[in-house]
Amino acid sequence: MTTQMKKLLNQQKRLEAKIERQDFKLRQNKYYENQRARKARTRRLIQKGALLEKYFQAENLSVEQTEELLKMFADYVNAKKPDKLKKRSA
Predict the structure, then answer these.
(1) 12: alpha, beta or left? (left if phi > 0; alpha if psi -120 to 50)
(2) CA distance 34 to 50
(3) Which of 57, 17, 53, 66 lies closest to 25 in space, CA to CA?
(4) Which domain of life is it from (predicted)?
(5) If I label 77, which of 18, 21, 27, 43 is the partner at 20 to 30 A Cα–Cα?
(6) Which bin fits 57, alpha (ψ -120 to 50), beta or left (φ > 0)?
(7) For residue range 10-45, what is the model confidence (pLDDT) as tens digits?
(8) What is the rounded CA–CA span in Å between residue 46 and residue 29?
């Protein structure tokens, strides 16, 4: 092989290694981003559950009983919900 060919092969190996490192960083960033989103969602769900227990005094209710309670009031609450609290379409 010529020296130019060897240089090109070395350059190709370096570039492939660089691409591999960048790909790993990208996958790692996506993983950490998903972790942060999952933790934020978990925190939000815990906070909302705590508020539900506080205002509906639902500490002694099972999950099924809590769902039944919420179903009873869902239509009324959603109908009376102010516009600023309604889900906005994208």
Answers:
(1) alpha
(2) 24
(3) 17
(4) Bacteria
(5) 43
(6) left
(7) 999 999 999 999 999 999 999 999 999 999 999 999
(8) 26
